[in-house]
Amino acid sequence: MSLSTAELDAIYLTLALAAITTVLLLILGTPLAWWLARQRAQWPALIEAIVAMPLILPPTVLGFYLLLLFAPDTALGRAWEGLTGSQLAFSFSALVIGSVIYSLPFVVQPLQAAFQRVPARLLDTAATLGASPLDQFRSVAAPLCRRSFVTAASLGFAHTVGEFGVVLMIGGNIPGETQVLSIALYDYVESLRFAEAHRLAAGLVVFSLVLLFALYRRDRRDSWRIRA
Amino acid sequence: MRYLFVVMLLLCAPCDAAEPLRVAVAANFRATLEAINRQFEHNTGQPVVVSSASTGVLANQILHGAPFDIFFAADRQTVFKLAAADTGPRRGEPFCYAIGSLVLVGGDGRLAQLGDPGLSLAVANPATAPYGAAAMQVLARPEFSQGGGRKLLRAANVVQAYQFWHSGAAELALLPRALAPAGTPVPGHWHLPLEQFALTLRPQAAHPALHSYLNWIRSDTVRALISEAGYRPCP
3-class SS at B178? Predict the structure, then answer.
């Protein structure tokens, strides 16, 4: 069983998309989750709700708005073309932006929950010892929440690999550019190439299972260790 | 060093020698075009990548900036509308490349089955697929009015309609002849003609291989391939 160029392209695109999205999400999501975890007021609940929206909205809603937003004749489309020299609509970059929004809750929520569990008195103690807020985060909170970073990154990565609706609407199924695995699979099913479809589908099932099993097994092992 | 390697891996995997030609094709013509492209790739070494969906879906993507070099549609209107739209880069002249026809598959093969409300029927979405629209024109004929209560399965495009029938989900399907050569032909005057037009979406200078690709598409070899696939030649 050897994979075709199209399949290798799709695998590469999917892994690149998921990796870039995960890195961006960790960079953007960490301060956001930290800020959300430290707020006592009511109104940040609105930001929380916005972050969580991709969990319940159909992907077609996001896909529809992004399709309109990314078109070459919009302000964003023109600005992007001016800055980078290439078009945003139906490009890999458009998929990255869409994926960052779509996978945001999968990274922010585990981090926020972990940050909320950091005892306030530890941070207060650090503050009395002269630690700046950034230092409190770096030396106290981040090491305590190390595991949650792994969880957040894994979920963000896996969810991006599992994306379909948004990518179908804003990517346009272009091999080598926007045809990620889920789209390639759809394409194979549509063109009745079931042997290839089986191969990709089974690969994705195994990948998701292995990743989630590794994640849950780690949590289980750790909760035993803590109890013992 | 390790990171450098990862970064290089990320940057360099898609660095192919020649920039591929990007072609959008209506689902009915995909398999034929892929055969045509294989020969072109073999002759010239120029890679061609194909994206396929229904004509309406592709036209919408093109209007929103999808970076295709050439578009093979399943009708005339969509292509002329695109050619007239002043958004996007300079488009070429539309040209006809094939004339399609409808066939009925499933059941005992008789067209009269279209009047049977008990038989489920798959068609492509008439809003986006010209073959779906033609199928609806056929169903609107008075002799099939009895079948108005039938279960009508709307597929995203003709290939999916074929799949609905092939998998047994639909008992009948109205499909392009190219997808089901053994199907019962539907008389051509029962629907508007399925003249399939193509359009270059960028100036020919935009891609070094575009000119030779267009010549190839209009060559006698390709005309023969298109006829063999079940299409009639353009006037």
Answer: coil
CA quadruple B188, B189, B192, B198: dihedral, nearest 10: 40
In chain B, residues 169-228 whose CB comes closer than 8 Å to chain A? none
User: Cα separation of B48 and B210, whole Å?
Assistant: 10
Q: Using the predicted structure, report yes or no on whether residue B2 has a pLDDT greater than 80.
A: no
**Interchain pair A174, B67: CB under 8 A:** yes
CB contacts < 8 A, A to B, total 71
H or E element in which residue B185 lies: strand B184-185
* Contact residues, chain A, for B63 at CB < 8 Å: 71
Does A16 contact B13 at a Cβ distance shorter than 8 Å?
A: yes
- The whole-model pTM stands at 0.83
Q: Which domain holds residue A173?
A: 5-227
Give the β-pairing of B184-185 and B102-105.
antiparallel
Distance spanning both ends of chain A, measured CA to CA: 47
Give the residue from B186, B192, B166, B182 showing the smallest Cα distance to B174: B186
Q: What is the pLDDT of residues B190-234, one digit of tens each?
A: 999 999 999 999 888 888 999 999 999 999 999 999 999 999 999
* Averaged pLDDT for residues B121-149: 95
Distance from CA of B39 to the nearest CA of A (A): 17
Q: Are A67 and B64 in contact (CB < 8 Å)?
A: yes
What CATH number is attached to the domain comprising A17? Answer: 1.10.3720.10
Q: Is some CB atom of chain B closer than 8 A to the CB atom of A88?
A: yes
Asked if A75 reaches chain B (Cβ–Cβ under 8 Å), the answer is no
Nearest-Cα residue of chain A relative to residue B12? A12
Mean local confidence (pLDDT), A126-130: 91
Name residue, tokens 């092939």: B166
How far apart are the C-alpha atoms of B189 and A138, rounded to whole Å? Answer: 75
Contact A204, A223 (CB under 8 A): no
A189: enclosing H helix or E strand = helix A181-190
User: Domains in chain B, ordered, with CATH?
Assistant: 21-99+194-228 (3.40.190.10), 102-190 (3.40.190.10)
**CB within 8 Å: B157 and A190:** yes
List the one residue out of B18, B34, B38 whose CA is nearest residue B26. B34
Closest approach of A78 to chain B, Cα-based (Å): 11
